[in-house]
Amino acid sequence: MTFNWCHGPSCHTNETQDRVRGSKGNKVLRTRKVSTNHYIRPFGLEGGSIWAYFCSQSCLINFVNKHGQAMLQLEPRQEPLETPIKDPVKDTESRWNSWTIEKRV
Fold it and tell me: Counting C-beta atoms within 10 Å of the first and last residue's C-beta, which end of the chain has fewer, N or C?
């Protein structure tokens, strides 16, 4: 099985039993391994997952907090994105009065 090391900037500081490694008197806290099995393709590929690089949501959030501004500079957005749709239709037969929104092709 192939793996990545968690990219969380403070993953190696979390005091959990599964991170303890080393011989007696020479222990360390180590970053967790993250599986990259065939069910989770690497991020960036079609259908890829960010979870091939982070062991937990807290490690992901720590990474975004540390590198968020640099990530946004990769693809800055000066204008909003829009998707053309047909006029929404209200379903009054339903108890909850739901709306149907269809994309225009």
Answer: C
Give the C-alpha distances (Å, rounded to integers) separating 59 from 22, 36, 67, 68, 102: 23, 17, 12, 13, 37
pTM of the predicted structure, to 2 decimals: 0.69
**Phi, psi torsion values for 34, nearest 5 degrees:** -125, 125
**Calculated CA dihedral for residues 81, 83, 84, 86, nearest 10 degrees:** -140
- In the predicted model, what is the mean pLDDT of residues 22-48? 77
Q: What are phi and psi of 99, to 5 degrees?
A: -110, 145
pLDDT for 45:
60
57 pLDDT more than 90: yes
Residue 29: CB atoms within 10 Å: 15
Is 3:55 a contact under the CB 8 Å cutoff?
no
Average model confidence (pLDDT) across the chain: 87
- Within 8 A by CB and 6+ apart from 94, the residues are none
